[in-house]
């Protein structure tokens, strides 16, 4: 009978629902930890209810940089109200009846604390180590020297190429970026005419051609200034203060001639899509 009862208790323990991947011990509690000098909530920490307040402070000091003598601990409920001060260093945490989800707030009374004035959160306050180019060039086993050696062996060496070789996959050299020439898209531009209706790909926007030519401030070659039927553009017919055509704000756009098709593109009437009633 005893063995049967033991098996029942064991089965209930194993199959009991749990909020985590492991059963939480009855003598522990999970608390949200906040700090008077830190903007963000630190973390959720699990504490043993038998730990003294002094031991609690020593554990927390490793997380926040506040020395235990400078700490004042408070327990807050879920709404942040009703602070209970943990005043007695020799009382156990369980004496204050904390429960899962409560907030344990750390007040740091040390004006010279590591956590004061943002020293643990604002990285701009930390002095950065800067090595001179001369000192770096004297160091051995640097990436710079490794790269120089590899490029002596193979002028086309790149880190990407070496990674492909290590993985045993073919390396495809990227094509050199083409610089737009002054006559690019000239042929496509000749097929278009200012004042004609058009459609623009790939978005299928409709409008009227207002300008054909080159545009200062954009890559070389020919552009088409289009006045859209709807406010789907990026400008009012001007680029960097220079006007090429006139239209309302956000109705104008400049696109490459190969993206513009001239033809019968009537303005879309939303009423055409409605059923008769």
TrEMBL record:
It is found in: Cytoplasm. GO terms for molecular function: alpha-tubulin binding; microtubule plus-end binding. It holds the Pfam family CAP_GLY. GO terms for cellular component: cytosol; microtubule plus-end; nucleus. InterPro entries: CAP-Gly_dom_sf, CAP-Gly_domain, TBCB_Ubl, Ubiquitin-like_dom, Ubiquitin-like_domsf. Keywords: Chaperone, Cytoplasm. GO terms for biological process: cytoplasmic microtubule organization; post-chaperonin tubulin folding pathway; tubulin complex assembly. Residues 221-256 form the CAP-Gly domain. SMART domains: CAP_GLY. PANTHER family: DYNACTIN 1-RELATED MICROTUBULE-BINDING, TUBULIN-FOLDING COFACTOR B. Belongs to the TBCB family. This is CAP-Gly domain-containing protein. It comes from Apatococcus fuscideae.
């Amino acid at each position: 009978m005893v063995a049967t009862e033991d098996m029942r208790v064991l089965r209930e323990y194993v199959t009991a629902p749990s909020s985590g991947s492991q059963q939480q011990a009855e003598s522990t509690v999970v608390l949200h930890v906040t700090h008077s000098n830190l903007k963000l909530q630190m973390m959720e920490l699990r504490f043993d209810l038998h730990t003294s307040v002094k031991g609690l402070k020593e554990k927390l000091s490793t997380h926040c940089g506040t020395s235990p003598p400078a700490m004042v601990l408070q327990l807050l409920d879920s709404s942040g109200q009703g602070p209970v001060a943990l005043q007695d260093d020799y009382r156990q945490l369980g004496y204050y009846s904390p429960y899962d989800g409560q907030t344990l707030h750390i007040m740091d009374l040390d004006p010279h604390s590591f956590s004061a004035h943002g020293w643990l959160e604002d990285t701009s306050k930390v002095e950065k180590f800067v090595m001179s180019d001369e000192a770096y060039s004297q160091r051995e086993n640097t990436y710079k020297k490794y790269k120089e050696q590899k490029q002596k062996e193979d002028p086309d060496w790149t880190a990407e190429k070496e990674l492909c070789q290590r993985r045993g996959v073919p390396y495809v050299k990227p094509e050199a970026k083409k610089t737009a020439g002054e006559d690019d898209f000239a042929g496509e531009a000749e097929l278009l005419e200012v004042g004609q209706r058009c459609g623009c790909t790939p978005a299928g926007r409709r409008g009227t051609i207002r300008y054909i030519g080159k545009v200062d401030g954009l890559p070389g070659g020919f552009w088409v200034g289009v006045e859209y039927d709807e406010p789907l553009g990026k400008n009012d017919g001007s680029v960097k203060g220079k006007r090429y055509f006139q239209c309302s704000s956000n109705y104008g756009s400049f696109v490459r001639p190969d993206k513009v098709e001239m033809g019968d593109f009537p303005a879309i009437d939303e009423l055409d899509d409605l059923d008769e009633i």
